[in-house]
Write a structure and sequence with these properties.
It is built from three helices and five strands; from the N terminus they run E-H-E-H-E-H-E-E. It has 132 residues and is of the alpha+beta class. A five-stranded mixed sheet has the order 3-1-2-4-5.
Length: 132
């Protein structure tokens, strides 16, 4: 595993068309999304704005994916966000994404899932140990 550091975008709050039930299809619902990116470090280069991933791209990409599309499953959305993050920049070694429907059931705060996409050189990283 090459040297890396983490970038987090926590609690991105959006309204999404998501779910398989009729009431979920009828109205957008609140969704909270967390993203952790594993970024390849280049120890030979000084850290500067020219050598880092722009944090602003994460919420923009998430918003773009959610904006005009219905998602049947959180799992599908999770994977799409993670893959988009990995595809965005060659220094993104992996992305861990969690989504949560925050207003679906009265008896729980949120219902969600967590998934990851890793490049081959990060395949052995224990992504499930990250708090996302």
């Amino acid at each position: 595993m090459p040297p890396f550091y983490l970038i987090t975008a926590g609690s991105i709050r959006l309204s999404a068309s998501i779910g398989i039930l009729e009431p979920e299809r009828a109205a957008r619902q609140p969704l909270s999304i967390n993203v952790v990116l594993l970024i390849r470090e280049h120890p030979e280069e000084p850290l500067s704005i020219d050598h880092v991933v722009d944090y602003r791209t994460v919420p923009r990409e998430v918003s773009r994916l959610i904006e005009d599309q219905h998602w049947d499953l959180q799992e599908t959305l999770c994977l799409a966000i993670a893959q988009a993050c990995v595809d965005h920049h060659q220094d993104v070694l992996g992305a861990v994404v969690s989504t949560a429907k925050t207003a679906i059931y009265n008896e729980v705060d949120a219902v969600g899932c967590r998934m990851a996409r890793l490049r081959p050189e990060a395949a052995d990283f224990p992504w499930w140990t990250l708090h996302v």
